[in-house]
Amino acid sequence: MENQQDRLQQRRDMRRRRRQRNQILAYAAVLVMIALVAFGIVCGIKYLTSRQEQERQTMLEQQESQQAMLEQQFASEEESLEVPQEETEETQVAVPELTPEEKLDEVINAMIGAMPIEDKVAGLFFVTPEAITGVDTAVRAGDGTKDALTQYAVGGIIYSKKNIRNAEQFQEMLSNTELYSKYPIFLGIEEEGGGISPLAEAGLIDKQASPADIGESGDPGQAYQAGNGLGAGLAEYGINVDFAPVADLANVDNSVMASRAYGDDASQVSSYVINMINGMQEQGVTAWIEHFPCGGSTQEDTHDGLAVTERSEEELRSQELSVYQSSIDAGVKMIMVGHTAVPALTGDNTPASLSGTVVTELLRKEMGYQGVIITDAMDMKAISEYYGSGQAAVMALKAGCDMILMPEDFQEAYEAVLAAVQDGTISEERINDALRRIYRIKCADRLELE
Q1: Which residue of 29, 44, 69, 405 is most buried, as measured by CB atoms within 10 A?
Q2: pTM for the full model?
Q3: Residues 370-400: b if buried by 16+ CB within 10 A, e if exposed
Q4: Is 25 exposed, middle or buried (0-12, 13-18, 19+ CB in 10 A)?
Q5: In the chain, what are the domain boundaries?
Q6: Helix (H, G, I), strand (E, B) or coil at 348
Q7: What is the mean pLDDT of residues 354-378?
Q8: The domain at 100-446 falls in which architecture?
Q9: By percentage, how much of the chain surpasses pLDDT 90?
């Protein structure tokens, strides 16, 4: 019995040894196969790499050969076109390099050329946020503002005290408005200092002294400091245009500009105005001067109705106009034309903003001003009591203004100008000309001028 068990055990041991031997053989075979495959892959890679290198070398040789042929051909053509030295010097014309301003003009022309006429016309309007959104008081810029700016790509939006709740709200409102605009947009406010300081009164920026108080100080440097302080504060919230400073002379009794003007002496006021402009624009905020040609020479307020100055042409030229001329010579970028009637210049009581004699003949041609000309607010009674919104807008553009500020009825004014362009009353080139001036301001800081 024991012998039989021993034999069984021996057979089991032999079978186990055979299995182990077979497993070892199988593993060895697999390893050999893997080694062969790896060897094949390495050889294949070497072969492909060698072939690619050969092909690359062949291509390089072909390119070098072609290049040599082209150079030889070019040299032959040069020899065949060779002319005497004297003739070459006479006929050779140097191509002038464009100046930075010319490069900017090319960019602007391309931008304007791509605009539909509806957007071109809308771009001439500077309006309140309520005018395009239809709300009573705008304090945020959401989908309503986005839709409005898509339909009416206005050139600028002016904000007032009622639009301001707090710093975060106001900054977000302006940021969203800029984001939603299809084109660069003016974001403006009337912050002069003194009694006209909506942001300062809301506690968002430091309040500056009134122009009258600064003028009485006898120090034009104070105007620079005021402008610089205002510019820094406005820029922080995204404002890029300030409706200031007043360049009028308060040179009649009870002048409507008594607290807003720097005084009544032309040479002194010129110095204050230029200092204010420089201080503000150093902070990246465009200043404009107002109310051309003589908003301070009456007691009447154009907000309330017709205002007519009795100043003679000689008085105007020697005093009021000299302030504006000095600002023009100093490079002011925008000028607002007021609604005061100036019969000594026009011969009638047409508001200055609607007079081609004042806007084009005097300001543009005689005084040489090439910047943006904008009207005073067109919802003032000096305009709205005598002209419809559409009629006044068309008249202002034909007179030579580039932008229309706050028409009483924006949609009526927009539709009237669009119709005037479409029927040829106002040429499209006239609109393009205005837009070029506007975009020279808007785009100047978007290009790296050499």
Answers
A1: 405
A2: 0.78
A3: ebbbbbbbbbbbbbbebbbbbebbbbbbbbb
A4: exposed
A5: 2-91, 100-446
A6: coil
A7: 98
A8: Alpha-Beta Barrel (3.20)
A9: 75
